[in-house]
Each structure stands twice: as C-alpha cells, then as structure tokens.
Hints:
Elements: H1 3-28, H2 35-57, H3 71-93, H4 97-125, H5 130-154, H6 159-175, H7 177-180
Amino acid sequence: MSTITNGISMLIVSILVLFLFVMIVLGFMLGFSHPLPWLLIGIILIIPFIHNKIVAKRFLQWNDSYSVGLDSIDDDHKKLLGMINQLQTASHYTTDDKMIEHILDELIDYTKYHFSREEKIMQDSGYPGIEEHMKLHKEMIHQVTGFIDGYRLHKTSTIDEVTQFLKSWLINHINGSDKEYMPYLKNISNS
Ligand SMILES: [Fe+2]
Ligand SMILES: [Fe+2]
C-alpha cells in the first residue's frame, strides 16, 4: 500500500472512531441502560484487533510445507521472506526513499547469491531440469530489475507493485519449481 493510500486509510479510521465517539456520547443521553452506546464501545475496542489482523495478512510467513528438505536452501528462502517483509514494512511506514532503495539493493544481491547457490546444488545433484530452472532465475532477475528501475528511474511502478511481485514470485517459485529438484537432493548433505 502506498504512503498516500495509508494516509487516506488512517484518515478514514480516524473519522470512523470520532463518529463512534460522538454516537457513544449521544447514546448515553438515552440512558446508561440503553444497549446502543455499549455496543458502539465494543466496536471501538475491536477496531485495533481487526486492523492488526489486516496488516498481518500482508506479511509472508514461513510454512514447513515450503521446505525443500535442505537446510541451507530453506534458510535462504526464510531470509528472502524476511527481506520482503522488511520491504513491506518500509513501504507501509516510511517515506524515506533511501531506506527502501537500500533494502531493494540487499534483496537483489541476496537473491542473486541464493540463485547461484541453488544452481550449484542442482548441478551437484545431477538435476536434469537445471537449464530450465536457471532460465526462470534469469527471468526473475530481469523482471524484478525492470520493476525496480521503473520505481527508481522512471516512476512507472510503485514500491507496492515491486513488493507484490516479489511476494507472489517467491512463494510460487519455492512451492513450484524449487520443489521439483527435491528428489535429486538425496546425495547432498545438509550444510
Ligand atoms: Fe529456484
Ligand atoms: Fe530458491
């Protein structure tokens, strides 16, 4: 969500809370035994809970079903998930472009590092789909670099679009293509 959209949603929530407060005061004029103000107080109390639930859904969470069965690769995937969550937090709360660019640079660097580690493992394990898989990695770097340049230089993509792309690509890739080399990892030790 962009900073402007965040600002608008915060304004809407503030207006809603203010409106509920006024309704509560007016409700108590009907008498303390009237259920309306108490009901409205209940609604105000659950707003932060609902808000936290909505925000939490934007973040990626590691799930054991994502495991490819090799600790080094799982650790890389967990780290990438964490970095994308960091980007999500930064894009949600900060207007500091430098900080977002720093996270993007680190994310790209670590993704490249992870891809080369994964490709070496696929090679060592004799995985026959390595060429196809390497093409997907290359494509991902190309796509994400395009998005980042669009955000950084041409302002044609937003940081939210970059984050959404990274989130869906990573989860789909871990759960799809990365799972395909799993049966060939039998002879590779966990390191
Ligand atoms: Fe991969
Ligand atoms: Fe991977």
